[in-house]
């Protein structure tokens, strides 16, 4: 999962036009910043961050999605991580959220449609927006045209944020533990991050205390 937080100031509004003039279409992955105070980027439906999925039947699946793989339609069973609804709702109140996933859109789009019932995601980025680096799809935050002091990436795979480890909030992979509270426990951290223009000090303290 990835988050990109962005606090818009008057100087940012002036610099946005300059950024758009020097960054190519292929590099500028996100649309122009609107009136939202913060921008939050989120990743990954395929890894075990906000849910788990498999092609084997699950009796307690939250939803089932038909996905075509190599010409065969599979029924993918998806199980939501505990407290994901509350987490997304709260993030949407504080940030502008963007789904950023290494998954293909044919899978991630329908999962996102069902998962994001409160409409937290303002934009969606898929595999083609990633950088393929040493066998991994990496989220290169520098290509998004945003101030990295306000960018936060949350992910269960360090390979996904290898270019920007200081911007990361690592999370543990989740499969089926219904007593898990990690998403709920992270909300206070993001409440603090939503109030600053530079996230590095808070994230450094968070990593050293974890």
Automatic annotation (TrEMBL):
Keywords: Hydrolase, Protein phosphatase
Keyword Hydrolase applies: yes
Organism this protein belongs to: Ataeniobius toweri
Keyword presence, Hydrolase: yes
Domain FCP1 homology: 43-193
Record-linked Pfam families: NIF
Protein name, as recorded: Carboxy-terminal domain RNA polymerase II polypeptide A small phosphatase 1
